[in-house]
Amino acid sequence: MQDLPVGARSGDYRKVLAAGSIGTLIEVYDLLIYGYLATILAQQFFPSADPTAGLLATFAILAMGSVVRPIGAVIFGHVGDRFGRRPALASSLLLMTAATVGFGLLPSYAMVGLLAPVLLVLCRLVQGLSASAELPGAMLLMLEHAPANRRGLTASINNLAVILATACAALVSLVLAGLLSPGQLAGWGWRVAFLIAAPIGLVGLYVRTRLLDSPAFVALGESARQGRVPLARALGTAKRGMLLLVVWFGAQNVGGYTLSVAMPAYLTREVGLSPADAYAANLVGVVTSVAFALLGGYLIDRLPLRGTAIAVMAGVAITAVPGFLIITSFRTLGAAVLGQVLCSIFLGPAYSLGAVLAMRLFPTGVRFTAFALPLSIAVALFGSTAPLVSTWLSATTHNPLAPGFYLLAVATAATVAAALGLRRRDATAETPR
Fold first, then answer.
1. Helical H runs in 180-268?
2. Separation CA 291–CA 171 (nearest Å)
3. CA distance 416 to 40
4. The whole model's pTM is what?
5. For residue 223, what are the contacts with CB-CB under 8 A and spacing of at least 6?
6. CATH (domain of 396)
7. Cα–Cα distance between 413 and 145 in angstroms, integer?
8. Within a 10 A sphere around the Cβ of 221, how many other Cβ atoms?
9. What's the distance, CA 93 to chain centroid?
10. Structural domain of residue 72, as residue ranges?
11. Any alpha helices (H) in 83-181, and if so which ranges?
């Protein structure tokens, strides 16, 4: 079945764009604020004898939260493919909001000892379950409402929400660091960044529950609830595409997590910037990447998809080390911004491309599962571990360029995977539904 006519659904399309993007912004902020406050959380939830060990433990918990994401992808993928994209997204947002508010209420290590990091892990696990549905589900809902010739732009708009969420996390961290003394920020100020998730999460939940489900899913009718479970069907019919997306999103997430979650701590520990300057540099770098994301979406709709995918991921590989070299050579606020901008030129289009590939590679009845599971595996194996791996590499090799070389390696692997695994017909023809 081909796409349903879109002209009559233009109003629904705009509503879905707005609601999907708002929900994504909220959930990604909730995920990333943990990383932006990693150095403070290390002080609050772990013994203070070894700051580096505390930071590594904090990033390890960040990674642990993603261990459950493949489980969440199977659960929410089943809901999304059997009962609709909308109920999966509404329930995921509710879980995420509850977990993030929980972070802001947790007792510190000084109050309850080892129970503090245990509770930190539990909240992060709940966040991981929720995140497994958000990004793939919101992206699919938007893309399945979009005209076929506007999917790259649509994906870039959702990607813009991710970038804005990163900017919000950086801005909140910057404002708190600027308004509060170090003692106030460590004592109670960090909790504010988590507790504001409650009101904005409720607003997002209200918006989500008023959405129409995607026309492609509605067209399946009762057949969506019949036959084998979506996971079995996806593994039986879409293994090649799912493996390709694991490698693709692995590289994209190493870059994304390194430039957002790990970068503020990297700029303070490796480069010597103040916390306020580190947050400011990261905020400017993230905001300037908006233009690249939108340009990438525009080009995706107009250029051959396979060639564009290979060129974009090769660009991620080529710019990785030079970006970190600029940051570490000059060690100034301006150099920190310039290096991050260079690294982010191709990362924005990379995520949009992955989403459009999922639309092309997978039929509607298994699309949520076949998209969410590879993305969750990639985040668990590569993305969420990137801050931990980057910090460990820098500490053990004493080479501040180590995170750039790590990104170079995974992006090169993804370039090869796209060249070998993406067939020309996948990039030129619609997949039957």
1. 182-184, 190-195, 197-209, 215-220, 230-237, 239-257, 263-266
2. 19
3. 39
4. 0.84
5. 365
6. 1.20.1250.20
7. 32
8. 9
9. 15
10. 12-212+235-427
11. 85-105, 109-112, 115-145, 151-179
Question: Can you give the pLDDT at residue 431?
Answer: 40
* Angle, CA of 309, 311 and 315, to the nearest 5°: 115
Residue 113 lies in a domain: yes
Query: How high is the pLDDT of residue 427?
Result: 52
Residue 432 lies in a domain: no
Please tell me the total count of domains within the chain: 1
- Reading phi first (left if > 0) and then psi (alpha if -120 to 50, else beta), residue 423 is in beta
Q: Annotate 252-311 with DSSP letters as a single string.
A: HHHHHHIIIIIHHHHIIIII---HHHHHHHHHHHHHHHHHHHHHHHHHHTTS-HHHHHHH
Residue pLDDT, tens place only, 96-152: 899 889 989 999 888 988 898 889 888 889 988 988 988 899 899 999 999 888 999
> CA 112, 113, 119 angle in degrees (round to 5)?
70
- Residue 420 inside a domain? The answer is yes
Q: Enumerate residues 6+ apart whose C-beta is below 8 A from 239.
A: none
- pLDDT score recorded for residue 348: 80
Residue 130 in domain: yes
Report d(CA 135, CA 24) in Å as an integer: 7
Structure token pair of residue 85 = 């994209």
Both tokens of residue 217? 């899913």
Cβ-proximal residues to 328 (8 Å cutoff; 6+ apart), any chain? 270, 271, 400, 401
Question: How far apart are the C-alpha atoms of 106 and 118, rounded to whole Å?
Answer: 10
Ranges of residues in the chain with a pLDDT under 70 are: 1-11, 48-51, 424-433
